[in-house]
Write a structure and sequence with these properties.
It contains 16 helices and 13 strands. The protein has 460 residues and is of the alpha/beta class. The longest helix has 17 residues, at 20-36. Glutamic acid is lined by residues 11-13, 45, 187, 201, 205.
Length: 460
């Protein structure tokens, strides 16, 4: 196959938001297309009129754009291709390769229960297929699977050889009517018409693949290559579901950077040479056959770490645009170096507005509020004497002050530092934990520091 003939697609149904697993499938399709110089398409599988909505579709498109997974050409909609499916269905019906099944729901249910009782796989082998009844419109349309002893096999590009006995499938349904095709039929028609060379999708679709191969064969269409991706698993190795947290890609928008999500999803089913890598580096390294065969655990800790690394790389203006925070450029690194999730930036609100705190918090260990007042008064003098606050100038002066203050406790030199630095930390941040108070003073600037120190002295 010529590389330019490589064509892949992602085919989400707009019956919900873009699932994180579908996001990963999209990524691997996209990486493969980019690596091979092929094309990546987007098809919206919206034949289920009742459950499909435009809102979900828009959200899916938005999520793919947010992840930076651009597709070629126009978005393809199954709902606009009903005529295509109809022609193919009519062809199969006229050739006796598909037929109308008139068994009632009750009959099918009784068959299902019998099979369950006999521990057989559920399927429907229909005795209408060779009867005139099978040609009479009305019932559901099924594929005439023919020889139930035949073996359907394919070489999965990730998992290797896979085979199924046709007898396990029965005469499976392909459409509710000629104008209402089901997934296994419409997907085949589209993949063939779009000349998809590699169908790369989640392994939950493996059981659909033999059915689809039979449809290709019935229509005399070339069968594409298949690659089934391992599923993303929850920490307890169960299928990832809502109870494990956010499932939709859009849910990650408020906390995570798209580069971090892409990097994380990429590494969930593939071993790249390093933990952090750009889309371009992933493209360089990606090989379809090296995708893992079995599922990877969704490790939120790892995702958060990756996110923190990308947050650090943001410029102040990128950070401010993303969070909408009105914080000084100087203060941004103090936040980004400590952040795992964007929404946690609120914890640093003291960098853009005066903090609220209880005055008791100002006390270092067993020092008194009088000690605090004394230390803050001296700190105020120090700050007022500086032309501008620099890390070095303020730190040196405060260290000197600490030595003086600590003289009362010659056996414990840290007492002086605590009595000087602790209240300043609280005055500037209102918190027990914060970046170093001198760093805070530098980014807040002389005027703001004086204002906050004076307010604190006034409170005591
Ligand atoms: N609509 C199917 C899904 O969202 C597409 C599966 C496929 O890629 O064939 O799971």
């Amino acid at each position: 196959m010529d590389n330019k003939d490589i064509r892949v697609r992602i085919a989400p149904s707009p019956t919900g938001f873009l699932h994180i697993g579908t996001g990963q499938s999209a990524l691997y399709n996209w990486l493969f297309a980019k690596k091979m110089g092929g094309k990546f398409y987007l098809r919206i599988e919206d034949t289920d009129r009742e459950r499909s909505t435009k809102e979900y579709e828009e959200s899916i498109l938005g999520a793919l754009c947010w992840l930076g997974l651009d597709w070629c050409g126009e978005v393809i909609h199954q709902s606009e291709r009903i005529q295509l499916y109809r022609t193919a269905l009519e062809k199969l019906l006229s050739e006796g390769k598909a037929f109308y099944c008139h068994h009632s729901q009750e009959e099918l249910e009784a068959e299902r229960q019998r099979q369950e009782f006999e521990k057989q796989p559920p399927r429907h082998e229909c005795n209408h297929k060779d009867l005139p009844l099978g040609k009479e419109g009305g019932g559901i349309i099924r594929l005439n699977v023919g020889d139930s002893t035949q073996v359907i096999s394919f070489e999965d590009q990730i998992k290797g050889h896979i085979e199924f006995k046709a007898g396990l499938l029965g005469d499976f349904s392909i459409a509710r009517s000629v104008s209402d095709p089901l997934y296994n039929f419409a997907a085949v028609i589209d993949d063939a018409e779009m000349e998809i060379s590699h169908v790369i999708r989640g392994e939950d679709h493996i059981s659909n693949t033999p059915k689809q191969i039979l449809v290709y064969e019935a229509l005399g269409l070339p069968v594409p290559l298949f690659a089934h991706l391992p599923l993303i698993l929850a920490p307890d190795k169960s299928k990832l579901s809502k109870r494990h947290g956010a499932m939709a890609v859009v849910d990650y928008k408020k906390d995570y950077l798209p580069d971090a999500i892409v990097n994380f999803l990429g590494g969930l089913g593939y071993t790249f040479s390093k933990d952090l890598l750009s889309r371009e580096e992933m493209i360089q390294e990606f090989e379809l056959s090296k995708v893992h065969k079995s599922g990877a655990i969704f490790d939120t800790k790892k995702l958060n770490w990756i996110n923190s690394q990308y947050i650090r790389r943001l410029t102040p203006s990128e950070f401010k645009n993303l969070t909408g925070l009105n914080v000084s450029d100087l203060a941004v690194p103090l936040i980004t170096e400590r952040l795992e999730k964007l929404s946690d930036a609120q914890e640093f609100s003291y960098l853009w507005e005066a903090p609220v705190y209880e005055k008791e918090l100002l006390k270092w260990k067993d020092s008194s509020l009088e000690d605090v007042k004394d230390s803050l008064t001296k700190t105020l003098v120090v700050v007022e004497e500086l032309e501008t606050i620099t890390d070095e100038s303020l730190r040196n002066k405060l260290e000197l002050l600490s030595v003086d203050t600590g003289k009362a406790s010659p056996n414990n030199r840290s007492v002086g530092r605590g009595v000087v630095f602790w209240p300043l930390r609280v005055v500037l941040s209102g918190r027990e934990k914060s970046p170093d108070p001198v760093q805070l003073a530098v980014v807040l600037g002389k005027d703001e520091v004086i204002k906050r120190v004076k307010e604190a002295i006034g409170k005591i």
